[in-house]
Each structure stands twice: as structure tokens, then as C-alpha cells.
Amino acid sequence: MDGKEWQKKTEEAGIEYGKGLERFMGKKTLYHRFLGKFLEDASYRDFCVAYAAGDLNTSEKTVHTLKGTSGNLSLMRLYRASDAMVQAIRSKKPADELDARAKNVRETYAETCEAIRAILA
């Protein structure tokens, strides 16, 4: 993947690469290491398992962790999707709205991970 394709995929996924790199004091290797660790983080998987089981308490905690991690890495579309899910759970939104937001988290997570893999390739 060339530089323009990589940049387009990153932007479409809502990754603010420059801001993320700034958070890591311009240390590209360190930022990339943390992006790689994100791919191994269990928060998303734990959220999916808890949500599928109807455990909203654990769902809220795990998606809140996902929100924080994605914000720290400047994965902003995922940050916003996770935040919307946290807020929906906390405000006791109806099941159909929760399901829609959970679907958005799943889709955004997949796109974000695909873009991270492109960055790290």
C-alpha cells in the first residue's frame, strides 16, 4: 500500500495520526508499538461478550476502557462510537438503540483495526 492509500485508509477510519504521534512526542516507533498493543487489547472482545450476555454493567466498563484507549491513541471515530455507547448504557436507552450503537462500535472497531494494520505493515 502506497503512502496515499495508507493515508486515505487512516483518515477514513478516523485515526488522527499526526495528533497520535504528537501524544508520543513524535516517537513513531513508540506510537506504532502502542497501536500494535491496541490490536491485542481485550477490551473490545470483553465488551462484545458482555453485551451478548446482556451484562450492561460489564459492557459499560469495558466499552469505557475501549473509549479511553482509543482516545489516547487518537482513534477518534472509535472514541466517539465508544463514547456514544457508554452514554447510551448510562442513560438506560432502549434495547434497539443500544443494539444500533453496539453495531456501530463493532463496525468502527473493525475499520480501525484494518487501518492500524495498514499503518504497521
Question: Main sheet, how many strands, which sense, barrel?
Answer: none
- What string, H for helix and E for strand, traces the elements in order? HHHHHHH
What is the residue-averaged pLDDT? 94
The helix-and-strand class reads: mainly alpha
Task: Using the CA coordinates, give the radius of gyration.
Answer: 15 Å
Spans of 5+ residues with little confidence (pLDDT < 50)? none
Beta-strand percent range: under 5%
Question: What's the total number of strands?
Answer: 0
Helicity range of the residues?
Answer: over 70%
Measure the end-to-end span: 9 Å
Q: Quickly count the helices.
A: 7
Shape: elongated
Short description:
81% of the residues lie in helices and 0% in strands. It is mainly alpha-helical. The model has no long low-confidence stretch (mean pLDDT 94).
Explain how this protein is built.
This protein has seven helices and no strands. By secondary structure, it is mainly α. It is elongated, with a radius of gyration of 15 Å. The protein has helices at residues 3-12, 17-23, 28-40, 43-52, 56-72, 76-90, 95-120.
Keywords summarizing the entry:
single chain, 121 residues, mainly alpha, 7 helices, elongated
Q: Topology, pairings included?
A:
Blueprint: H1 3-12, H2 17-23, H3 28-40, H4 43-52, H5 56-72, H6 76-90, H7 95-120
